[in-house]
Here is the input.
Amino acid sequence: MDRIRKGDEVVVIAGRDKGKRGTVLTRVTERKVTVEGINVVKKHVRPNPIKGVAGGIIDKTMPIDTSNLMMFNPGTKKGDRVGFKVVDGKKERVFKSNDAVVGGK
Here is the structure.
């Protein structure tokens, strides 16, 4: 079971985007995810008329390692660690600071 999943709100704790908040868009690999508005780079794209791609410089969201992210806890308004507990017979993700169940999924 993963601590960070698609749709979770996360805070960046390391790197050039440190302190920014965003929503997880996709899970690229086991350790890497793409986050909305985080780790955006400029990519030079060559035009391809067959595919209908116009050339130029585009902004592209690149994957970021999950070790550089923390789940955002709305109760404390800060980044928080996530653990697992059995709640009502189900394994749930909970925040470590206040034992609140992680919302969303």
Q: What stands out?
A: Residues 9-74 form a domain with the SH3 type barrels. fold (CATH 2.30.30.30). The two ends are 12 Å apart (CA to CA). The CA atoms of residues 31 and 67 lie 8 Å apart. The mean pLDDT is 91.
